[in-house]
Amino acid sequence: MIELKTEGELAVLREAGRFVARVLQALRRSAAVGTSLLELDEQAADLISDAGAKSSFLHYHPRFAPSPYPAVLCTSVNDAVVHGIPTDYRLRDGDLLSVDFGASIDGWHGDAAISFIVGTADPADEKLIETTERGLAAGIAQLEPGNKLGDVSHAVGVVGRGAGYGLLADHGGHGVGRAMHEEPHVPNEGPAGQGIGLRPGMVLAIEPMFVAGGRDDYRYGEDGWTLFTVDGTRAAHVEHTVAVTEEGPRILTAL
Ligand code: MF3
Ligand code: CO
C-alpha cells in the first residue's frame, strides 16, 4: 500500500530532508585528500546526535543483507556503486566518492545522496556525475499528479542509456515516509505511461546509479553490503527524496 502524506506530515518530512541536505553539504566540505571514510561517518553521527535526529541506516537489516548495517553513512568510492561501508580508507586525489545519508526526525525519514570528486577531477568522471545528476533531475521533473511511475523510470533511464552508461539492474528508488524504504519500488528504467498513477502526497526517493563501463551487472564485496561494478569502471549515485504535490515536485532533501 502506498501511504499518501498530509501537508502536516510533509512539513516534518521537509525538516528531516533539510537536515539530511545540511549533513551532506558538511560532509562534502570535509571530504579532502587524506580524510578517512570513518572520519566522515563520525562527523555525520555527531551531527545526528546534536540535532536529536535518528539514523535511518544504522542497524538497518533488510532481507538482502547478511548483517545489520553498521554505520550512519554509505561511502562508495570509485568502482563501489552503492552501500559502501565506511572504513579507515583515506581518500586520494581523484577519487569519485558517493555519500548516501538518511535520518529521521519525529519518525519521518529523509534519504539523499551526492557524488563528487576529491581533489583533481578526471573529465570522464565529471561527465559521469553530471549525467547522473541530469538523470535525477529528469526523474524528478516527472513527479506530477496524473503522470505514471513508468514516466519517472523512463526519464531516468533515457538519460543514462543516452550516455552509454550501465544502470545497475534491480536497484532504484523507493517510497519514503515513516520507514526509509516503502512501496513503491522505483526502477531506473522502464516504459513510459505504465505503472501506478502519481498522486499528491506520494513521497518518493529517486536514485539513479550510473556505471561508466555500460554494464548493468554488479558483484558484492566481502562485507556482503557493498555493490561493485564487475568491470572495475567507476559509478556515480545521486538521490533526492521528493513529494508529489498539486504544484508539482517538491524536493524535500534540498538545502
Ligand atoms: N539510499 C539507500 C537506499 O535506498 C540507502 C541504503 S541504507 C543502508 O538503498 F543502510 F541500507 F545501507
Ligand atoms: Co534510498
TrEMBL record:
GO terms for molecular function: initiator methionyl aminopeptidase activity; metal ion binding; metalloaminopeptidase activity. Pfam families: Peptidase_M24. It is an enzyme of class 3 (hydrolase). A divalent metal cation 2 binds at D111, H174, E207, E239. A divalent metal cation 1 binds at D100, D111, E239. CDD domains: MetAP1. This is Methionine aminopeptidase. It comes from Amycolatopsis acidicola. The lineage of its organism: Bacteria, Bacillati, Actinomycetota, Actinomycetes, Pseudonocardiales. The gene is map.
